[in-house]
């Protein structure tokens, strides 16, 4: 029913879990409507009248149909990194239908990816003016505010998104909220957000990594070991997670586990800064 981008987690390779820019696609949400009246995960596309029947393509106004097709093209270009072409398609979508909230949302995501925050802010505000309770839009605007270090404002938008009982991506928003709370130095609050996110998706590598890092910082080593071992035993292990695992095992005094992780780090990521830190013995950096 909905076509578009949902974001992808890092797979094998030396990818980062801590640099927010590197997981932008995973933190933002694109929702491109496939049918009129089904523009989002919010209550706005739900038909409450049992006699109304299903919404079919013939119910979609012509201007919205043209805009939707342009927006689907824009989403595809955005996914392949062709920001300028994607923006041009969004422009044509809005020319066809100036009241298309999803088009403003995608425009905001593109500008956010280009670090043009004023244009992104304007785009998300326009989207929210049209569909102010949409949790995906609230999430995206909160993430934009977070990147500008407007943490208190960002948290208010995340809270509104999470409070929507029909919202199916609460785990993702809880994760993003936790990253922002970490950036604001609210570590206890961040841990709670990550723990709640973990309940939705225990395989999420970003959540597992940050939980382990927070617990190591608090010297809750057994709990930190649980989360980082689970991550390092998965397909999402990378140089950063292996190095965090080494530091946890070092703090616990498990030299065997530490050497095993170091061997993986040396074999898989020989040019990584994490291997250099290990070889210097920089366990407390």
From TrEMBL:
Record's keyword terms, sorted: TPR repeat
Pfam assignment, any one: TPR_8
UniProt superkingdom: Bacteria
InterPro entries referenced in this protein's UniProt entry, alphabetically: Pilus_4_PilW, TPR-like_helical_dom_sf, TPR_rpt
Keyword Acyltransferase: no
SMART domains: TPR
Signal peptide bounds: none
Key word Cell cycle present: no
Swiss-Prot/TrEMBL TPR repeat ranges: 67-100, 101-134
Stored NCBIfam families: type_IV_pilW
Name of the protein in question: Type IV pilus biogenesis/stability protein PilW
Species name: Verminephrobacter eiseniae (strain EF01-2)
